[in-house]
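---------- Forwarded message ----------

FYI, see the Lipoprotein record below. Original note from H. follows.
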Amino acid sequence: MIQKTLLLILTVLTLQSCNLGTSGTWNNDNIDKDKREQIKVLNDKLFKAIIRNDVTGIKALMSDKLLEKGASDLDKLINQVSTSFKSDSYRILDEYNVHNSTTGIGNTLPSGVSGDSDYVVNYQALNKEMYVSLLLPTGLDNELLITAIYGNYDNQWKLNILQFGQYSLFKKTAPDYYKLAKESYDKSYLIDAVNYMGLSKQCLRPANDFFQYQKEKDINEFYEKVMKEVNSKFTFPLTLDNVDTKPKVFRIFPEMTNEGFFPMVYYLSDINLKDTTALKIENEKVKKEVGRLFTGIDKDKKFVFYWAFNEIPDGKKLVEHYGFIDKRTE
């Protein structure tokens, strides 16, 4: 069937301040129970306000300094976030209570050092006492991380930093996709490795500079390695010379479906999109050639998707395509 192409993006919000001093940190069950309960009340209010697109409710939780910095963009941001997921509850990934000897110092909060999924939260402390909550809406395959960093203003907790970002895709985080990419690379499945690394990068900074995985350097270096290798091996658009109609593959990427991510192959065809019989004949040849050229792309997967175009989309207008689904046996 002929369909039209669509694109989707996402966003964020912040605040910062530098000094010298010391700090003590408590996390999760080591935090004072009464204090955890105080913050839970605020987190509940924050989460309800987010899912209800209640900007006024969120502003009531924000510090004056954050209101000065981010109020103008808040309406648009919360509207985007509130419509991006459906959930009526959240779980706590981790939380931290920090006591500083002075204000304006950097707080560095590691969840661990050597684990594959260990991370560090970094920010400038505007208050002597800070509280970090990392919240994940429940019931989602594609998890959004809500980073709420509070400061204690004369025994009243207020939000200093509020961030939203992609934490996982189909319950897999950046380190998870990095691991899959390395496994694919070891099998010489270069396109799979590139696709997995693309997904890893999407989840790599779920709170911008405030959240960094301990293995981020390794992930970025491996991403550069596979991208350099794929770019040296293939030049797109790539003409499929072994196919008589000479179609040109111009893009391969992971397509999201209800069952997960599967390869999508975009190619340019000289056959009119209305001539579906000729397109199907050509596509059978395209599938074989794509499987030959891009090792592993059709292995260990339920589907490979193909879209035939008569012109390469330039991002400025909708371009028609004709789609094929290659159902594979896993």
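H. also flagged this: The chain has seven helices and 14 strands.
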